[in-house]
Amino acid sequence: MASNFGELVLLLGDHHLPSRATSIPEQFQRMLVPHKMQHVICTGNIESPQEYERLRELVGGGSNVHCVSGDYDFVQQQHNQQQLDDKKVVQLGKFRIGIIGGHQVVPLGDLSALAMMRRKMNVDVLICGWRRKEGVVEHDGGYYIFPGSITAVQGSNMVCYVYELKDGEVDVSKIEFAK
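RESULT FIELD:
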């Protein structure tokens, strides 16, 4: 059964650790099991080498960690490491997925502006940071995911689980896309 499940993707937004929070909430940390996910996608603002290394460890190496630049990425400022791109396209199953930090779209979080970016990048799904509300939206022939989500790609279907912390409990909602 697991072989039919597809690839599990951990999708993270601008997590700003350690400047705006000291850690990921314990309820989410319990779900971050190494080698459970095959890919990590992050919309930027990885503020420490330790956080980036933790993402690499989740998937057993760096080639499946797909990150774009944010405003506060440590790799932009330290360690002479290669700078992250401001946008990136990855292929997962039948889906072309675009990743942006969101700061390059004006006005920020505007669906019409995001639709133009999605078409320019020629992607089915656009993952964008900078929007202050997590969720999934279908608009103008494409899908838009605003992190806080964990997704699984299954051949011609994509199932997106949105995990939110509400009153100390993890609330899960599910949305499925077909291509």
